[in-house]
């Protein structure tokens, strides 16, 4: 099977760099330069890469090692070119765009934040929802209705409680995201796959101002401690979410 060039990231500068046995299949990762930028690639079999844990770990390892050399734009997993010429053509075609992105993220790191709420704390929000005007109205209708009608009204009330609960939780998560956003260069919301994750966000932070972000986060943790939120911060990472 012929080899292709697997892409890990784009790096600022044209210096010749090699990361010994750091890449996929324990292959060396090395630079392919165009003007004053370089792609970090490995010679690997020209086939579709499977995103298993080992392969993703090697991909991330090369990205992190590349960060020690300067500003980089990390590539998503699985990008491959047939030849070195193909890599250079990509760099040439995207040169202006790549340079602009590097200028935006130079001197910055990405941090990820997940805010979770335990199932038991959801019940506390549901209890508060019983004071909602709409829900109070449905309760009165249930008290004045017959058995058949009350069954459907209870279903309506349960849905109203659920909607009100998630509305208030969403409002709190947006408050947290907005508050942290005041301390960073850029931020974005990420998809959450679990109901317990009420905020999944990424923040692009200037290294010189990182202390401000962390202090604000600690203040937010204290502010929302009574709500039963758990905060999980990760990073610093290469700026995957802002490339």
Polypeptide structure, described:
With 243 residues, the protein is α+β, with helices and mostly antiparallel strands. The chain folds into 2 domains: 3-106; 109-242, Alpha-Beta Plaits (2-Layer Sandwich), CATH 3.30.70. Helices cover 44% and strands 27% of the residues. The protein has 7 helices and 10 strands. The protein has helices at 53-67, 84-93, 95-105, 119-129, 133-143, 147-181, 210-223, and strands at 3-12, 18-19, 29-34, 37-45, 72-74, 80-81, 108-117, 186-189, 197-206, 229-237. Strands 1, 2, 3, 4, 5 and 6 form a 6-stranded antiparallel sheet that branches. A 4-stranded antiparallel sheet has the order 8-9-7-10. A hairpin with a 2-residue loop joins strand 3 and strand 4. The radius of gyration is 25 Å and the shape is elongated. The model has no long low-confidence stretch (mean pLDDT 87).
């Amino acid at each position: 099977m012929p080899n292709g060039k697997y892409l890990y990231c784009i790096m600022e500068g044209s210096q010749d760099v090699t990361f010994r046995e750091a890449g996929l299949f324990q292959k060396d990762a090395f630079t392919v330069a165009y003007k004053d930028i370089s792609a970090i690639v490995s010679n690997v079999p020209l086939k579709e890469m499977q995103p298993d844990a080992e392969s993703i770990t090697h991909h991330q390892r090369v990205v992190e090692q590349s960060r020690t050399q300067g500003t980089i734009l990390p590539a998503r997993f699985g990008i491959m070119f047939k030849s070195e010429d193909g890599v250079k053509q990509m760099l040439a075609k995207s040169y202006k765009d790549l340079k602009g992105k590097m200028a935006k993220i130079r001197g910055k790191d990405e941090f990820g934040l997940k805010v979770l709420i335990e199932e038991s704390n959801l019940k506390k929000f549901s209890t508060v929802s019983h004071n909602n005007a709409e829900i109070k109205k449905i309760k009165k209708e249930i008290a004045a209705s017959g058995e058949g009608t009350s069954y459907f009204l209870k279903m309506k009330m349960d849905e109203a409680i659920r909607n009100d609960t998630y509305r208030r939780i969403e409002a709190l998560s947006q408050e947290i995201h907005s508050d942290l956003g005041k301390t960073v260069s850029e931020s974005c919301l990420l998809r959450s796959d679990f109901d317990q994750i009420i905020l999944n966000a990424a923040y692009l932070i200037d290294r010189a101002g990182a202390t401000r972000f962390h202090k604000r986060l600690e203040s937010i943790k204290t502010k929302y401690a009574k709500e039963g939120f758990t905060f999980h911060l990760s990073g610093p990472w290469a700026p995957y979410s802002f490339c």
